[in-house]
Write a structure and sequence with these properties.
This protein is an alpha/beta fold. The chain contains 21 helices and 14 strands.
């Protein structure tokens, strides 16, 4: 009977030859099995690497670019290429690490605010605009930072706005409204059921840590209860750095005693375009100080650290429609990201970097059509380079002016020196002469720069634009794991969920532990209505 071999090969296989040498047949089978096993090891090695047990020690560094949308990157990239005379293929550090985008809606609006946006990251759930570490029912939810600390990680927060502002607060406090900054400060220092969860805090916001009647740490305290939380923190073991000189003594993190509280401004640290380097450190310096201090402190630990770093004032530049301030803020953030990536590359601890925005601010458009004919487009980065200060800074200078020649001051100091604008009109001067409110002055000044640069804005608020996700890991298998989860388009809560899984953090368990946290606004409202930048500090009460 013809066998399959006969049909395929045209001849019949001899069964006798195989059966006559049993030892030879067994040897051949053994060789084949060995070859198959060796081949399997090579074939499945990448899979085994990808799904191997994760290293115990790891660092998670989460970046938030508050208010930065994709157009902010385009604006800044072109600006930087122009001022540094770079080729068109030269890009920002962030650009090399783009992996996806995020949808930003909150539980009660298609357009989120920073509080709900940050709570989506910290608690991995959607909540309402204004919520700080609470769910849609105003019940406290466990955060990544808290879960990490309870797992044995060290934790930190680095910002350029108030440390009690929405983003850092959402990782370290639980309040019904973002404006409860006095109470947020208490939570951050450990006055709630979990005790102290933060090991390092660097930023502004000193005003919410002492009262106006206490001059030891300044003269602009706004606490209504008369407490001095800075003094109390020092008594409880916190080290404190409250100015540039004290910050420099930290030696970029090499001389830090944890826990560290560093409040470098009463309110927000100035825009980078206005920042006096002798008075305020850069975000890059803050970030290096944090990663160095936390890394040194965990050197002999089997756990690493969780650190949140925020490019906070990108958002403020968007709210104010200030393109000159915006590009400098993005560049400052990019430098910080680059420095932290270098830290990760040099670290022998598995370290991941994830960066995204809570939302876009300003509805930024990088160019305008300048005529009716198609295509007449323009955008001129040189006008952003000409501006030496933000509209916010110049507006405060104008409001504070007490001289006798306001018109000349506007022409020479505001327009020509401050904004680099020479083609202003008498009507421009007249308009500023009539304005007395800081916000109105800012709008006029920033509009003059935007119009000349052909940069457009659609709102002074937030937009629903998807925002970018960037990531980096210093281990290949971890990098693959990040891509598996975050490549493509995702809801913002998925970023929080990934970090929780990566840290092996049980947010549900932490939520049970924070249930009794005091989070109502009653009795903890700051006495101030707004700060010097016009940011509202107290919510309307029913």
């Amino acid at each position: 009977m013809a066998t399959e071999n006969t049909r395929l090969l045209g001849r019949q296989t001899s069964k006798k030859r195989w059966s006559s040498s049993k030892p030879a047949r067994q040897l051949l089978i053994a060789i084949l099995i060995v070859l198959l096993l060796v081949q399997s090891v090579f074939l499945f090695k990448p899979v085994l690497q990808k799904h191997s047990a994760p290293a115990k020690k790891r660092n998670v560094i989460f970046f938030v670019t508050d208010g930065m949308g994709p157009a902010s990157l385009s604006l800044t990239r072109s600006y930087r290429q122009y001022i540094e005379k770079l080729p068109i293929d030269d890009v920002l550090t962030l650009d090399h690490h783009l992996i996806g985008s995020s949808r930003t809606r909150s539980s009660n609006s298609l357009v989120t605010d920073s509080a709900a946006g940050a709570t989506a990251f910290s608690c991995a759930l959607k909540s309402y605009n204004g919520a700080i570490g609470v769910d849609p029912d105003k019940q406290p939810c466990g955060t990544l930072l808290e879960a990490a600390k309870l797992e044995g990680y060290l934790t930190g927060l680095v910002v350029t706005t108030r440390i009690t502002d929405a983003t850092p607060a959402s990782f370290s406090a639980h309040t019904d409204y973002r404006f409860q900054e006095d109470l947020i400060a208490e939570h951050q220092l450990g006055e709630y059921p979990l005790g102290r969860m933060v090991d390092l805090m660097i930023g502004g916001g000193r005003t919410h840590f002492y009262s106006g009647s206490d001059s030891q740490y300044g003269s602009r305290g706004t606490r209504a209860d008369g407490r001095n939380l800075i003094k109390e923190a020092e008594k409880n073991g916190w080290s404190y750095a409250g100015n540039r000189q004290q910050f420099d003594q930290l030696q970029l993190g090499r001389n830090v005693t944890l826990p560290l509280l560093s409040l470098l401004a009463d309110y927000d640290i100035p825009f980078d375009i206005d920042r006096d380097d002798s008075e305020y450190p850069s975000l890059e310096e803050e970030a290096i100080t944090a990663v160095t201090a936390l890394s040194d402190a965990t050197r002999n630990s089997d756990k690493g650290f969780f650190l949140m770093i925020e490019g906070s004032r990108i958002d403020h530049a968007g709210h104010q429609n200030d393109p000159a301030a915006q590009v400098r803020e993005v560049i400052a953030f990019d430098k910080a990201f680059k420095a932290v990536k270098k830290f990760a590359d040099n670290s022998d601890v598995e370290t991941i970097l994830i960066s995204t925005s809570d939302h876009e601010t300003g509805g930024l458009v990088t160019a305008k059509q300048i005529g009716k004919d198609y295509p007449e487009y323009a955008w001129y980065p040189e006008f952003l380079d000409n501006a030496k200060h933000s509209g916010e800074y110049l507006g405060k200078q104008l409001v504070a002016y007490k001289g006798n020649d306001k018109r000349s001051f506007i022409e020479k100091e505001i327009f020509e020196k401050g904004q680099g604008i020479q083609d202003y009109s008498p009507e421009d001067v007249d308009e500023l002469m009539k304005l007395s409110q800081g916000g109105d002055i800012n709008d006029k000044l920033n509009g003059m720069v935007s119009d000349r640069a052909q940069v457009g804005w659609t709102t002074h608020g937030h937009s629903a634009v998807d925002v970018n996700i960037y990531a980096y890991a210093n281990r290949r298998e971890t990098w693959i794991r990040i891509l598996d989860r975050l490549q493509g388009n995702h809801e913002n809560i998925e970023i929080g969920k990934f970090m929780a899984e990566y840290l092996e953090a049980d947010l549900t368990q932490v939520t049970e532990m924070v249930k009794k946290t005091k989070h109502s606004p009653k009795g903890v409202i700051s006495e101030s209505i707004s700060d010097e930048y016009g940011h509202i500090l107290t919510p309307p009460l029913n």
